[in-house]
Amino acid sequence: MRVSLAPFRPARTRTVNLAHSAQAVRCARRAVSFHLARQGCLKGPDGERSEQAEAALLVVSELVTNACRHTPGPGHLGMALRRGRLVLEVGDRSRIEPRVMPPGDRGPWGGFGLGLVAELVDDWSVVPTGQGKTIRVTLPMAA
C-alpha cells in the first residue's frame, strides 16, 4: 500500500455520490456494472460477466461496505478505465487509515475484506482529503 497525495482524475472519470445507507453497496455495484458495460468490459467472450468484472464488483462491494461499517459513511465512488486498468475510488469522511488485519486478528465479526481487496487488485493506496480519505485501487480490465 502507498499513501498518495495527488488526486487521480483520468479522462472519462465517472463519479457517483453514495448515501450512508443499506443501499450504498447495491448502488455502487450497479454504477460499476453500468460503467463497465458502457466501456465494453462487463461481459467475457462467453457472454457471461467476465472474471475481471466479477473481481471489480467484489472489490467495490468490500470498499463501500467498509466505508459504511467503519466510518461516518461513503461520500463518493469514482471509476475510470485507463490503459487496460480500472481505477476505483471510494471516498469517506474518516481520516483513519484502514489496514489489512493479520490472520490472528480476524474473526466472525470480520477483518477479511481489505485483505481480500489487496489480493484482487494490482495496487491500492490511501489518499488523504480535506473531508477524510479516498481509497484508490487499480485492477486489470480488458475491453
Can you tell me about this structure?
30% of the residues lie in helices and 26% in strands. It is an alpha+beta fold and 143 residues long. Strands 1-5-6-4-3-2 form a six-stranded mixed β-sheet, covered by helices on one side. Strand 3 (74-82) and strand 4 form a beta hairpin. The longest helix has 20 residues, at 51-70. It is globular, with a radius of gyration of 15 Å.
Q: What structural keywords apply?
A:
26% strand; 30% helix; alpha+beta; 3 helices; 143 residues; globular; disordered N terminus
Short description:
By secondary structure, the chain is of the alpha+beta class. The chain has helices at residues 24-38, 51-70, 113-120; strands spanning 2-3, 14-17, 74-82, 85-92, 123-128, 133-140.
Please write out the topology.
Blueprint: E1 2-3, E2 14-17, H1 24-38, H2 51-70, E3 74-82, E4 85-92, H3 113-120, E5 123-128, E6 133-140
Parallel strand pairs: 1-5
Antiparallel strand pairs: 2-3, 3-4, 4-6, 5-6
Helix pairs in contact: 1-2, 2-3
Please, how many helices?
3
Helical content class = 25-40%
Output the strand order for the largest sheet: 1-5-6-4-3-2
For the biggest sheet, the summary is: 6 strands, mixed
Distance N terminus to C terminus?
A: 27 Å
Which secondary-structure class do the elements indicate? Answer: alpha+beta
- How large is the radius of gyration? 15 Å
Would you identify the regions where 5 or more consecutive residues have pLDDT less than 50? Answer: 1-11
Share in β-strands? 25-35%
Q: What are the secondary-structure elements, in order, as H or E?
A: EEHHEEHEE
DSSP strand count: 6
Mean pLDDT: 84
Anisotropy-based shape: globular
